[in-house]
Write a structure and sequence with these properties.
Number of domains: 2
Number of strands: 3
Number of helices: 3
Shape: elongated
Radius of gyration: 27 Å
Distance between the termini: 52 Å
Strand content: 15-25%
Largest sheet: 3 strands, antiparallel
């Protein structure tokens, strides 16, 4: 991908994001986006990144800690594949403190070390 500027006769030049590719031994160019409406700084930053440069994002956004959830999805997916969640004999009844179809004791055995207590609503 690259950025190109196409001159216009009586108006501002058009700034395009383009991609080159080969088809049947011939090189073709495809326009992906018209960047004419972008600020010059924004276009220069994108051009620098496309050329392999690095940009600094210091102070642009805040990273907030959140609860881990990937392991919960992994456990739920495994339980669904094993049909543990749907069988009433294998799954314990939901308690007042747990929104999950298994008890916290079973949960700690499935994913050791995970802070399950912080997930239960109060």
């Amino acid at each position: 991908m690259f950025i190109t500027t196409v001159p216009n006769r009586n108006s501002n030049p058009t700034i395009l994001l383009r991609e080159s590719y080969r088809e049947g031994g011939k090189v073709h160019v495809r326009t992906l986006a018209n960047l004419t409406h972008w600020d010059k700084e924004k276009v220069a930053t994108l051009d620098a990144v496309l050329r392999g440069g690095k940009i600094s994002m210091d102070g642009e956004f805040d990273i907030l800690p959140g609860r881990a959830h990937g392991n919960i999805h992994a456990v739920l997916g495994t339980m669904r594949r094993l049909e543990i969640e749907t069988s009433s004999a294998a799954a314990p009844a939901r308690s007042a403190t747990s929104p999950w179809p298994w008890s916290p004791v079973e949960s700690s055995n499935l994913v050791p070390g995970f802070p399950w207590r912080g997930l239960w609503p109060k």
